């Protein structure tokens, strides 16, 4: 990750930063935005699970057998 951060600064800003600076940027992002990204992952998981549960429910209904009267 440090290499990616260093490449970003060089490509986008024309600034060369060292390992310590890259680590500080990563730490900042982790602390300040980590919960946001984590929560987004949880929301995505909930959506995926709900979609799969709907499909499972439909699949289960197709397995029902008719009842004779």
What do these coordinates show?
The structure is a single chain. With 69 residues, this protein is an all-alpha fold. The protein has one domain. Helices cover 81% and strands 0% of the residues. It contains 2 helices and no strands. Helix 1 packs across helix 2. The radius of gyration is 24 Å and the shape is rod-shaped. The model has no long low-confidence stretch (mean pLDDT 94). Pfam families: DUF2164 (PF09932). This is DUF2164 domain-containing protein.
Q: What is this structure, in a nutshell?
A:
With 69 residues, this protein is mainly α. The protein is 81% helix and 0% strand.
Characterize the quaternary organization of these chains: single chain
Contiguous uncertain segments of 5+ residues: none
The global form is rod-shaped
Q: Note the main sheet.
A: none
Number of strands: 0
Q: How many separate domains?
A: 1
Q: Round the mean pLDDT to the nearest integer and report it.
A: 94
Sheet/helix structural class: mainly alpha
What's the gyration radius in Å?
A: 24 Å
Distance between the termini: 67 Å
| Relative helix content | over 70%
| Number of helical stretches of at least 4 residues | 2
Report the β-strand fraction as a percent range: under 5%
Topology as a string of helices (H) and strands (E): HH
């Amino acid at each position: 990750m440090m290499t990616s951060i260093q490449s970003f600064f060089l490509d986008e800003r024309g600034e060369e930063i060292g390992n310590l600076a890259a680590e500080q940027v990563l730490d900042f992002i982790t602390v300040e935005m980590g919960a946001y990204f984590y929560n987004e992952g949880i929301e995505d998981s909930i959506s995926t699970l709900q979609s799969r549960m709907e499909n499972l429910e439909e699949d289960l209904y197709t397995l029902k057998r008719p009842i004779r009267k």
